[in-house]
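Hi Y.,

Following your request, here is the sequence exactly as I used it, all 139 residues.
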Amino acid sequence: MTTPITGGCACGAIRYECTAEPVVSVHCQCRDCQRFSGTGHLFIMIVPKAAVTLTGEPTFYETVGDSGHAVDRGFCPRCGSPVVGRYAGFPDAVGLAAGCLDDPARFQPSVVIYSRSAIPWDVMDPALPTVAKMPPARR
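Below is the corresponding structure, written out as tokens. Let me know if you'd prefer a different format.
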């Protein structure tokens, strides 16, 4: 990687910087991500937690995924932008909302997850691998 991955919310109150490449970049079509994004899916870059610096104070709300693990979605309390996610099942990783990237071209999707919740008008790239729910963790 030549430059860090940077981004932040619409109003600038929250910023992030990541010094590592994403472990995976997903289009998530689960109902919680649909509600969080206000559309058919959420673009998420999963990155190592240790590589992320977050400035500002997101507000988090917790849901429980179908795995039984907590999922915390963080958004800016001032402008409402979805910014970051924490996943109890993957404690060493965080999700960065790719819609907040300073350079949106840095997001290169590698998989569509939770296709079982897909909305017909939210069409994904047919060349991407697609899984019905959360794929098993690779160790």
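The longest helix spans residues 31-37.

Thanks again,
Q.
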